[in-house]
Request: fold
Amino acid sequence: MSIAAVRDYFAQFGMADNVLEFSTSSATVELAAQAAGVIPARIAKSLSFKVDGKAILIITAGDAKVDNAKFKNAFHTKAKMLTPEEVVDLVGHAVGGVCPFAIKEDVAVYLERFPSVFPAAGSANSAIELTCDQLEQYAQNVQGWGDFCKGWQAED
Reply:
């Protein structure tokens, strides 16, 4: 899958033109924040894990880190990130462009914080600005909001 698949996915919502494509890489939180002109926390980082043999995505703020105890409490297993190869096979996007759009049907998606965020859009140099409500509306297979990370406090 690719940025083209994500654009096609957003076309059904009339939002294909909102996908941003940068002239530089946005494959890491820091690079994406520079490209989008925002603080790293506003980048919607997609963390991919394997739970019960299937991929899950946790979409969180760029400055958040998974709290292993919270993860284990929520999913009843140790947090095990997917390898880059597994990400492509199980999610459908390569590392650096992982997002909750135009993904494989059996990927469960969980969301966390911020008034608007910049998730990747299927490539290592793309993003789309969405409110959290829009992220919830447009992300595929959303299982709900959760608290899976440590080291941050939601802003008012």
Summary: The chain has a mean pLDDT of 87. The two ends are 36 Å apart (CA to CA). The first strand starts at residue 20 and ends at 21. Helices lie at 3-11, 29-36, 68-75, 84-91, 132-138.
